């Protein structure tokens, strides 16, 4: 089923809202081709109307626990359709009622706050007015901790019978112990061409074969386009950060609630470490995070303050941040790795050298040579607002 056919099954004004946000389906809210089937399936399920009754809300609440969006890590037409369908129900619920569906409430509040949905919804007047939720007295989630599994005790194998003084001794003695063969160093045929059996050998990962260098880390300029507090964690923000990708903003979870007020996070430009491309996405209290925010932590510790590392003025998302390796050039030591090998602990090795200088400029100090490499874009150096001698992570 194509997009237009699936949307046509939605009732008005939800159908009109979806077409408004997607510009009559021409943009499909940025859905990648690989995701369009899942988007259409969700819209078909939403059109059936079974998700807004009590049973449907319970099922939906369970399904939304680990999700920020229905499909992938960005807004699609499926989210717009679900928001529009849920609106008449959630707008009438009392606090005690929407507290019983915390994941649905968190999801709905996030979708209604996204710029494309809010702009289109406001144009529809009273049909999709913004719903205000009061989380002041929200009950804390009851998290059950599973008891540690007991390790199975190994049953000792019966000892081999003692050899008799006759032929058995001779038989045992005649069988010499097998010596372990030492592995020969790999030959050129084994590493770069084919093995003796004719099967192609795996190519060696040349990119991360040398000493870790900071330019292996995928640093980018990002822009916070939306932010909310994590519904299940007092110290976490859930941000939507634009990294200049066609797929739209990434969902990012950061533990900055107790250190940076939400007003100072909104609409902020920052430096991010991109996951999926470099680091693996991490799930934090049920919400998957697809990037890391680069912050400066005071040399006195977190109590001394935490600040976002700021890119140069007029920076735009997708600008690559790199380390200036020589005083008179913009050369870099390597390109970012497609995926950091966790066993090699590349990020963990490099991170202790990230600091802010007396000039508040962000830099990496080579632990061996003590040379200073400033973190920058082509527009200039990245800086911390006030912190000097701070560690970056």
TrEMBL record:
InterPro entries: Arc1-like_N, Glutathione-S-Trfase_C-like, Glutathione-S-Trfase_C_sf, NA-bd_OB-fold, tRNA-bd_dom, Tyrosine-tRNA_ligase_regulator. GO terms for cellular component: methionyl glutamyl tRNA synthetase complex. The keyword Mitochondrion does not apply. Residues 1-133 form the GST C-terminal domain. Residues 213-322 form the TRNA-binding domain. Residues 172-184 have a biased composition (Basic and acidic residues). Keywords: RNA-binding, tRNA-binding. One of its GO terms (molecular function) is tRNA binding. SUPFAM superfamilies: GST C-terminal domain-like, Nucleic acid-binding proteins. Coiled coil: none annotated. Transmembrane segments: none annotated. It holds the Pfam family tRNA_bind. Residues 142-212 are annotated as: Disordered. This is Nucleic acid-binding protein. It comes from Mycena indigotica. The lineage of its organism: Eukaryota, Fungi, Dikarya, Basidiomycota, Agaricomycotina.
């Amino acid at each position: 089923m194509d997009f237009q056919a699936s949307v046509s099954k939605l009732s008005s004004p939800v159908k009109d809202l979806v077409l408004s946000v997607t510009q009559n389906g021409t943009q499909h809210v940025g859905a990648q081709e690989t995701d369009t089937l899942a988007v259409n399936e969700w819209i078909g399920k939403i059109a059936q109307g079974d998700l807004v009754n009590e049973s449907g809300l319970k099922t939906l609440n369970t399904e939304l626990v680990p999700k920020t969006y229905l499909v992938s890590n960005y807004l699609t037409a499926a989210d717009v359709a679900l928001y529009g369908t849920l609106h008449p129900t959630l707008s009438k619920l009392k606090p005690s009622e929407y507290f019983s569906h915390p994941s649905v409430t968190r999801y709905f509040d996030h979708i209604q706050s996204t710029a494309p949905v809010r702009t289109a919804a406001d144009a529809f007047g009273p049909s999709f007015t913004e719903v205000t939720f009061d989380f002041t007295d929200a009950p804390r989630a009851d998290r059950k901790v599973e008891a540690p599994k007991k390790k199975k005790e190994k049953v000792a194998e019966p000892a081999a019978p003692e050899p008799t003084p006759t032929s058995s001794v001779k038989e045992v003695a005649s069988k010499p112990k097998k010596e372990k063969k030492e592995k020969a160093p790999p030959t050129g045929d084994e590493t770069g061409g084919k093995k003796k059996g004719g099967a192609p050998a795996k190519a060696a990962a040349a990119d991360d074969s040398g000493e870790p260098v900071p330019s292996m880390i995928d640093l980018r300029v990002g822009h916070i386009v939306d932010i909310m507090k994590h519904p299940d964690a007092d110290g976490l923000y859930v941000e939507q950060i634009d990294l200049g990708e066609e797929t739209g903003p990434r969902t990012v979870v950061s533990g900055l609630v107790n250190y940076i007020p939400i007003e100072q996070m909104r609409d902020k430009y920052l430096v991010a470490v991109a996951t999926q491309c470099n680091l693996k996405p991490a799930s934090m209290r049920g919400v998957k995070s697809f990037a890391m925010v680069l912050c400066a932590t005071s040399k006195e510790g977190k109590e001394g303050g935490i600040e976002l590392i700021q890119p140069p003025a007029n920076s735009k998302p997708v600008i690559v941040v790199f380390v200036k390796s020589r005083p008179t050039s913009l050369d870099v030591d390597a390109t970012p790795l497609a995926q950091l090998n966790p066993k090699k602990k590349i990020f963990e090795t490099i991170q202790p050298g990230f600091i802010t200088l007396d000039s508040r400029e962000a830099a990496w100090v080579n632990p061996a040579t003590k040379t200073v490499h400033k973190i920058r874009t082509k527009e200039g150096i990245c800086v911390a607002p006030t912190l000097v001698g701070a560690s970056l992570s």
